[in-house]
Amino acid sequence: MHSSEKPARRSPRRSSRSGAATSRIVGDSEMAELIRNFDWGTTELGAIEGWSNTLLTTVNMLLASRHPMFLWWGPELIQFYNDGYRPSIRADKHPAAVGQRGVECWPEIWPIIGPQIEAAMTRGDSSWNANQLVPIYRDGRLEEVFWTYSYSPVRDEHGTVQGTLVVCSETTDQVVSERRLRALLGIAIDPQEREQTTSGASLAARMRTVVSTLDGALADLPFTLLFLLDDEQIRNAGSTATLASLNAASAWPLAKVADSRAPRLLTDLTTRFGEITGHPWPEPVTRAYLLPLNMQGVRLRAVMVFRHQSSPAFR
């Protein structure tokens, strides 16, 4: 769906111009200053003094807004954005994205956004997307990022589309929090059900239900394993993992965790299993959390193993 190629870093060129030409860009914000000082002669737009009134008006409107906004302009989709947008792209693309061609800045998401930009530029179509996954490179890696955004064509005085204006909000925290809450609610045990879980068989059945529920939460837990332990054996009672070696009871310190009744974090998964792909994300899984599940009066014990991710990227 999207490329894993990391875009090259680029530093914006500063212009030696000052005075009347650059004063056409209004405001004292960080982005107004960057746009004023950028050497636009290195792009198809040329120097600021030669810009059309439509481009100047649109850029100054964008800079004056506190809402995150982004602009692509001209056939090469030269880029502008405001202070409200800047925190979402961080140092991986900022300030290099100023004046850059869109396709050069966003190779990882061009299959997603390219057709929408083309629709605006060639047909004058607008688009709207709510809580859309558009993963971008930031903080040194491809990160799960959700956006609510609109693309609108910008027309000149003759009615010709010259650019695409983006009005957007990042909704990653909201989407991920709601997704995780749904998963937690799906595995929660109410007090009445807890009272009914009085035997090894009922505990095992409940844990299988939990694993089945988490099979729908792969975005946050790419694998979940359930092992049941009694005096005679350890057996795998449920799994969302596709890698066979993960399902082997001998691969995990299950008895130690169950005996200690204390959770344990393993950080050596690559050594134990080789590289594990964190489906559906490209980031490898390197850590796992082992959680003992013991209930008073129930002899059968359980240990749940699930992927642990310390980084916010592709959580």
Structural summary, described in words:
With 315 residues, the protein is α+β, with helices and mostly antiparallel strands. The protein contains ten helices and 14 strands. The strands form four sheets. A five-stranded antiparallel beta sheet has the order 2-1-7-6-3, with helices on both faces. A hairpin with a 6-residue loop joins strand 11 (276-277) and strand 12 (284-285). The chain is elongated and about 85 Å long. The two termini are 18 Å apart.
Strand tally: 14
CATH architecture of the largest domain: 2-Layer Sandwich
Shape: elongated
| The top level CATH class name of the largest domain | Alpha Beta
Distance between the termini: 18 Å
Order of helices and strands: HHEEHHHEEEEEHHHEEHEHEEEE
Gyration radius over CA: 26 Å
Query: Could you say what the CATH topology of the largest domain is called?
Result: Beta-Lactamase
Summarize the amount of helix as a percent range: 25-40%
CATH homologous superfamily descriptor of the largest domain: PAS domain
Strand order of the largest sheet: 2-1-7-6-3
In the predicted model, the low-confidence regions spanning at least 5 consecutive residues are 310-315
Q: What is the number of domains?
A: 2
**SSE class:** alpha+beta
Largest sheet: 5 strands, antiparallel
Q: Please give the count of helices.
A: 10
Provide a short characterization of the protein structure:
With 315 residues, this protein is an alpha+beta fold.
Feature tags:
single chain, 315 residues, alpha+beta, Beta-Lactamase, 2 domains, 5-stranded antiparallel beta sheet, 10 helices, 30% helix, disordered C terminus
